[in-house]
Specification:
By secondary structure, the chain is α/β, with parallel strands linked by helices. It is built from 11 helices and 11 strands.
Length: about 290
């Protein structure tokens, strides 16, 4: 199947009460594994890259790998820019066939966040690209974006209504108690806030910082209306475990294909399990 827009995937998730996993990628093996797992579980999927990932791999490479991978399977897939804070980087993604971009101006005051988001929405919609924005501040660190726990702020439901109406954004990332990176303890998610925001906005909602969140909490946020869940740390850790284990057991092997092959298999198991957990398995058939 060809690459589709982000809103095409998330509108279906919103209307049918499930969540789509958005996986951050940094190399070819991750792209291959994600799309293979999506095809095996018949799950819609979003392949995304952070600004750091794009600097490492290259915008053109990410887009090309995702498009080639998507053409080999029957499930809908989108290419998404995660946490876009650099205007030029967002424009570059629009010019290289990304079908979804995130403008993250959440570190600005509300008026400036609205202004910057509205600008990106206007440009992206002209070329048929969907837009995600963030309201509130999600704690933790992801690449070059870091928010101290004390500076994290939850999304105000009524402020969210105004934000969506004035910007025209397609889906909204909300701050409800999760954090980027690895948790030191169990996150305290404000489930009632998710429910309230969903009822007010009636649109696809996004959860960042899901790695390490207990399964029962993930299922609850999906039930309450989260439709896109980002994952990065969990798959990095799975990849690291598999590579470390193989190298330790096979110290004389230097062929990268033999080293990364087992890592791909381990990664695929983790990804497929996540897709089943979120209720997206089988949804590509509907």
């Amino acid at each position: 199947m060809m690459i589709v827009s982000g809103i095409e995937i998330l509108k279906h998730a919103h209307e049918n009460g499930y969540a789509v996993r958005a996986f951050n990628v940094n190399n070819m093996e991750q792209v291959q594994t994600i799309i293979e797992a999506a095809n095996e579980t018949q799950s819609p999927v979003i392949i995304q890259a952070s600004q750091g990932g794009l600097k490492y791999v290259g915008v053109e490479y990410i887009a090309a790998m995702a498009k080639v991978a998507a053409q080999k399977v029957s499930v809908p897939a989108a290419i998404h820019l995660d946490h876009g804070t650099d205007f030029e980087q967002i424009i570059k993604c629009l010019r290289n066939d990304f079908t979804s971009v995130m403008i993250d101006a959440s570190h600005y005051e509300l008026e400036e966040n609205i202004k910057k988001t509205k600008q990106i929405v206007r440009m992206a919609h002209v070329v048929g690209v969907s837009v995600e924005a963030e309201l509130g501040k999600i704690g933790g660190t992801e690449d070059d974006i870091s928010v101290d726990e004390n500076d994290a702020t939850f999304t105000d439901p009524h402020g969210a209504k105004r934000f969506v109406e004035e910007t025209g954004v397609d889906y909204l990332a909300i701050a409800v108690g999760t954090a980027h990176g690895h948790y030191k303890g169990e996150p305290k998610i404000d489930f009632q806030r998710i429910k309230t925001i969903k009822e007010i906005l009636n649109m696809p909602l996004v959860l960042h910082g899901s790695s390490g969140v207990p399964e029962d909490s993930i299922k609850e946020v999906v039930r309450l209306g989260i439709n896109k869940i980002n994952i990065d740390t969990d798959i990095r850790m799975a990849f690291h475990r598999a590579v470390k284990s193989f190298v330790r057991e096979n110290p004389d092997v230097y062929d990268p294909r033999k080293i990364l092959g087992p890592a791909k298999e381990e990664l695929k198991k983790v990804i497929a399990d996540k897709m089943r957990m979120f209720g997206s398995a089988g949804m590509a058939l509907r």
